[in-house]
Design a protein that fits this description.
The chain is mainly α. Helix 2 crosses helix 3, helix 3 packs antiparallel against helix 10 and helix 7 crosses helix 8.
C-alpha cells in the first residue's frame, strides 16, 4: 500500500492496530475471492480484529463478523469474485501468493513484475488477462482511507486508528461507488467488471441491519481519543 497507489502518505500514519485491520481486511478480501479492497472488506477487518473501540461500537449496533459476511453475500461486493483468477487456482489447491514468493526468491521481484506487465499488455487472444494492478487493488478504498486521515488530522491525533478508519468508511459509504474517481481509475476498474454509480455495498449492508450511517458516524466521532 505504498507507491503507485498514492495512499502511502496515509498508510504511514496508521498505528499498529490500524495496520493489523488492513492486513485482516486483505485476508477477508482474498478469502471471499474479491480482486480489489473496498470499504466492506475494511469493515470485516475491523470486526475480525475486534480489539478496538470501533469494533465495540459496531458490536453495540448488532454487527458481528459472521453476520456482516452473510449480509455482504446478499447485497453483493463492489467487485465480483469472477474477476479474480486466483480464486479458481485456490480451488485447485494452488496458493498464488506462495507461488509469487517462490518466483521472487528464484528470479527476483523485478523479473516477476516485468513478466506481469508483459502479460497485462497482451490481448486476450494471446493469453493476456486484465487483472488488478497495485494501483487498482486499493482504488475503491482510497477515498475512505483519505477521509480517515483527514478525520485524524481534524482531531489533532498523530496516528490513524481503527476508530478513524470506521469514520472514513461511514463517510465514504454515503455516496455512490466511484465518487471522485478519475477517468483512468474508472477505466481500470471497468475492465475488472466494476459497475459505476451503484450504491456502496457497505451502505446497503448497514441499512439492511437497520443501522443509520449518520448516527453511527456521529457516535464514532464522539468517542474519546
Amino acid at each position: 500500500m505504498v507507491g503507485d497507489d498514492r495512499i502511502g502518505a496515509v498508510y504511514d500514519r496508521f498505528d499498529a492496530d490500524a495496520r493489523e485491520v488492513m492486513r485482516l481486511a486483505n485476508i477477508e478480501r482474498r478469502q471471499l475471492g474479491h480482486p480489489g479492497l473496498a470499504d466492506e472488506h475494511i469493515l470485516l477487518g475491523l470486526l475480525r480484529h475486534g480489539a478496538s473501540s470501533a469494533a465495540a461500537l459496531l458490536h453495540a449496533h448488532g454487527l458481528d463478523l459472521e453476520t456482516v459476511r452473510a449480509e455482504l453475500v446478499t447485497v453483493g461486493p463492489t467487485l465480483a469474485p469472477k474477476a479474480d483468477p486466483a480464486t479458481a487456482l485456490r480451488a485447485l489447491g494452488i496458493d498464488i501468493d506462495q507461488v509469487r514468493q517462490r518466483l521472487q526468491a528464484t528470479f527476483g521481484s523485478g523479473a516477476v513484475l516485468a513478466a506481469e506487465r508483459r502479460v497485462r499488455r497482451r490481448p486476450w487472444w494471446r493469453g493476456g488477462h486484465s487483472r488488478p494492478t497495485p494501483l487498482c487493488v486499493y482504488l475503491l478504498a482510497k477515498r475512505a482511507l483519505h477521509f480517515a486521515g483527514d478525520h485524524a488530522a481534524d482531531r489533532g491525533d498523530t496516528h490513524v486508528t481503527p476508530q478513524h478508519l470506521l469514520y472514513g468508511l461511514l463517510y465514504d459509504a454515503q455516496d455512490p461507488l466511484g465518487t471522485e474517481l478519475g477517468r483512468r481509475g474508472r477505466a481500470t476498474l471497468a475492465a475488472l467488471g466494476w459497475v459505476p454509480g451503484r450504491p456502496n455495498p457497505l451502505r446497503l449492508l448497514l441499512q439492511t441491519r437497520g443501522v443509520d450511517l449518520a448516527r453511527l458516524a456521529t457516535d464514532v466521532s464522539g468517542q474519546p481519543r
